[in-house]
Amino acid sequence: MATRSSATSDSTLLGVLPTDWAWARRLSGRIAPRGERLPLHDRGKVLVHSALMLAGGGESCADIEHLRAQEDLFGSVPSDSTMHRTFHEITDPVREDLLEALAEVRAEVWRRSSATSGTDTLMLDIDASLIEVHSENKAGTGPTYKGGFGFHPMFCFCDATGEALSGKLRPGNAGSTTLADHVEVLDAAIAQLPAEVAAGHRVGEDPGAVGRRVVVRTDSAGCSTKFAFACRARNVGFFFVARTNTQLQGAIFDTLGIEDLWTPALHQDGTLRPGAGVAELTELVDLSAWPEGTRLIVRREPLHPGAQHSLFPSLEFRYWGHYTDQDGEPTELDCTMRAHAHVELHIGRLKDSGLLSFPFSDLCANRTWMQIVMMAGDLVRWFQLLCLEGRWAKALPKALRWGFFHAPGRLVRRARQRVVRILDGWPTADVLVAAYARIAALS
């Protein structure tokens, strides 16, 4: 299948997915034309090309020129000035409409993916991250608690797929424990779920309408009784990293010397975690202010140099805990909560796909930029879930670009068809051909 040829970009492999699911047309239907004449470049297609550019490693509007150089692959691609103008034309209401279109595409993907099928509990992870901006001329920025300056966006990811279901662009001085932001991001994430999954998870809906359980995990920034009740009002379970307080410290103190309370902790693969233990301290604290059924689980680990903050001062162990309303053994719940660390990997993918660069001074345009960054990240994850296997299904953006999106090849015409010829000896040639076959099967 592979032949030696000149080097050209192979990002068309990624571009086939939104083409087959009419992503551009769905987006275009939500963007009303401005002016008396239709624009030369359809705005929905401009956004799709922007997402492809970001997935390929672009960081600014000028990087769209790399797609313009391959008209045979991508068709008529807008200029950087058209892309810049499009981002400034999209208002907040239009952006909400675009999210509805994205939810339609997401539903199509989920129906085809084994990662989202079945009845297993769906885990959502909320976290925020600081983005440094080296200019005070960008609207909506602010000083950060680390002494920097920029944005402090908050995201909600689907753990099963790594998709960024929702996000909110906030100034650098936005509070990490802001209840309203957590609720807003959670509601936006639920709105992105397919109808059969989101059923019963909106405010005030009957618990009997729930077709699939949804649970949200947060770090200590989301640990509050108010957010717990907000989750309960949406029939959503919760895991919150515990913040230290005198009551919790007293409960841990009561366990000192009582080794029978501690059960050996487990790694994610089910093997024993040497020296670590897990205990449920629900009966040792007053949880009357929390929703009914809330539990407190605490894990201890041997203290080591560089260990992070502990819930309890000790020279022997580091203590870490969480609140949850889920059933199960403490060791299993501890493993589930610790898997919240995946969110750092998901945010890292976005940072490697344009999140670190907010190119506009206008806040509304930068909000659109972040939304397209999230769309680009989702597009890559969909490609991995549906078309790749093994280590490539979990590979990071840099590896995917070297192995797939920037693979050298040649576009030839044969029997009235265009065929991408891959360079002889390219390490991922067989995987590329298999990915094309899977895309053809999905169509």
Short description:
By secondary structure, this protein is of the alpha+beta class. The chain has two domains: 167 residues, no CATH class; 226 residues, Transposase Inhibitor Protein From Tn5, Chain A, domain 1 (Alpha-Beta Complex). It has 16 helices and 14 strands.
Note the beta-strand portion. Answer: 15-25%
CATH class type of the largest domain: Alpha Beta
Question: How many individual domains?
Answer: 2
Strand order of the largest sheet: 6-5-1-7-8-12-11-10-9
Give me the count of strands.
Answer: 14
Helix content: 25-40%
Label the structural class: alpha+beta
Mean model confidence by pLDDT: 87
Distance between the termini: 21 Å
Looking at the overall shape, the CATH architecture of the largest domain is: Alpha-Beta Complex
